[in-house]
Amino acid sequence: MMRVLEHFTLLKFIRFGTYSAAESIKAGLDMEMPGPPSARGKQVTLALNCGKLTEHDLDLRLRNILNLINKVRTSIRDVQHAQN
Predict the structure, then answer these.
(1) Nearest in space to 33 (alpha carbons), one of 48, 11, 9
(2) What residues contact 44, with CB distance under 8 A and at least 6 apart?
(3) Which of 18, 42, 47, 57 makes an SS bond possible with 52, Cβ 3.0 to 4.6 Å?
(4) Are 33 and 15 in contact (CB under 8 A)?
(5) Are 32 and 40 in contact (CB under 8 A)?
(6) pTM for this entry
(7) What are the pLDDT digits (tens) for 34-69?
């Protein structure tokens, strides 16, 4: 189990604590939980349209989420391979 856990990195998320999409994304908040998002969704589109956010800002947050998904997938494969 420790071998699997050492592959994880932190994913920044907040629970019931943000009211601004643009500022939270720029501050490094990867995910708002639990869903559905209250400060994201339409606010992100508005922030993009008025220039408060860039696609690069969103790409950075999405990259962290996708990296976590890939690490979990790899860890699951490693565990399954070790069990066979």
Answers:
(1) 11
(2) 21, 22, 25, 53, 58
(3) 47
(4) yes
(5) yes
(6) 0.70
(7) 767 777 788 999 999 999 999 999 999 999 889 888
